[in-house]
Every structure is written in C-alpha cells, then in structure tokens.
Amino acid sequence: MHDMLSAFSHSDASHHTSTHVVALDLGGTNLRAASIDHDGALHHRTKIRTPQSDDPHAVADALAEAFDACAQVSRQHDAEVRAFAVAVPGAIDSKDGGRILRMPNIKALQNFQLGAYLEKQTGVPVVLENDANAATMGEVWQGAARGKQTAICLTLGTGVGGGLVLNGALWRGAYEAGGELGHIIVEPEGALCPCGNRGCLEAYASATAMRRLYIEASGASANDANEEINAHVVYQRAQAGDEHALQTFQTVGKYLGIGITSLVNAIDPEIVVIGGGAAAGWDMFVEPLRAEVKRRAFTERGKNVEVAPAARGDDAGLLGAAYLAWQKLGSV
Ligand SMILES: [Zn+2]
User: Fold this and answer.
1) Which residues line ion ligand 1, judged by CB < 5 Å?
2) 43-57: per-residue pLDDT in tens?
C-alpha cells in the first residue's frame, strides 16, 4: 500500500492514553479482527463469517464493519485507532489502490481496489499484506522467531504458504510475488500441485497432500470408506499407532526436509518456523525432516539450522499485519 502511505501522519494523540491499530485476517470461511497496540497486545477481538457474495462491496463492507466493531471498543478505552491492517489470502498490487490481483478463495474481490475502498470506508490509512507474509512477520515480531533478523516461515494448511524475513524486513520480491515457498520443487516428476506444476512442496506437505499420501500408503481407494479422511484424521490415526498414518508423516517430513534444505542453502536463515493447522503432526514429522536437512544441507551450520513450531497459531497473521502498520507509522 506504499502509495497510500502518504496518508500516514503523526497526528496529535496527546489526549489519548494509548494508540491501537485494527488488524484483520481475511479467510475464505471466516474473518477475524483485533485491536492491537504497539507492544503486540491484543485488546479486543471479533470473528464473523466471510460473506459468500459475488459483490466485492458486500465482502469489503464486512471488513469495514469488523474494523468499526474493534475501533469502537478501542475508543471506549481511550485508545486512538491509527490504521487498519488487513492480511488477505492472495496477491496484491499495493501501487494500484491495493488492488487484489489473485484471490482464488474469495473471487468477488479479484481485481477490486480493496485498499482504496477501505480507506474511504474507515477513514484511516490501510495496509494490505498477503496472509502468509503477515503470519511470517507475526512470528518474527511476537512468536517463535522473535528477535531473529533472518527467518523462513512455512504455513501448512489446505496449501503451503511461505514467507521470508531478511535483515529484519519482509521480502516481497521485485514484483510483490516472492515468498511462494510452497511451490519450490521437491520431486521433479512428482504429484500434481493445484498450481498446475508437478512435485511442488505443497503437493507433499499440505493437509490436502496428507490425505492423498495416507490413501496411497494404505492402498485404499479414495472413493470407498475414505471420504472422512482428512489431515486431522490421519494425525489421530498416527497418534493411535496406525502404520500407514505414521508413514504419511515420515513422507511429509522427508519432503519438508528436502524443501527446507534448498531454502537453507539459498537463504542461510537463523530459524525455520513451521505453522498452520497441518503442523499439528510436528512430533511425527520433525525427526525425518531434521534427518533430511542434516543429510543434505551444504554447510555444517545449515545441517543444524534451528527448526521450530510456530508459537502464535491463528494470531500470527493479525500480529504481522499490525506490525507492518506500526512500522509504517514509525512506532516499532
Ligand atoms: Zn505448486
């Protein structure tokens, strides 16, 4: 939202006891928002269903209403609301009014100037960020990578999201398309990824992939009794000692290790953080993951890179979005 940041200014906050930003994490199913101060404390939360509408205004107005709900509580507590920070599941052109370039899960917003619209509706500066990038920044600011300057974050969900923090700053790439770590190749002629390519990390480490790997391992057909199989079920079965479920997590760990080795060789990070709902199987995939990195990484330091579970769960995206707003305001 760089062009819109001229709207950021140091207003006179002397009559307020504190300042907040409202952060929002937009998902295909739910949207969550919170008032957050510049120490990363969350003061008020709200969560509503994301409108399933073809009208971009209907979706954007729901975001503005969630902002109002949080801002109202902040103001009741004498906190001035300085900005609205929104993490979105897609790609953004921040130089074009916060236009949404690609958002497969909320198609109504595609090509919509979300940033400009929200600034008009809320009256405060708006910061938009990709959700995986925001989650990465959240873990660096207030989570597992706190205090680290160079970090890699992978989010294992329906897909595999990624983010890079280099020298303390989020790396967006030359054209705001960087950090797509789920689509690095770990198996040249491997399984088909939703992106159309074969052998992406996402095709071996997402919740969707865990279901497929389990069905493959157990030799069962996806059409018979396996409709109820999902990553959570595979996790439960692995906990109960099901050998095919355990094998699934071995495979996930192996491919995560292969992908992470390439990232470690390229970036030389202080830490690799793994989050997302499908990271619940941590205890079952971390050992094969570490073994693979140890076997393959180029340097001794790389072989022993710190790999840690995410610490802020669903709040990482909210925190990271808030951090980016505070950064623009010059408060962190
Ligand atoms: Zn892919």
Assistant:
1) 183, 193, 195, 197, 200
2) 999 999 999 999 999
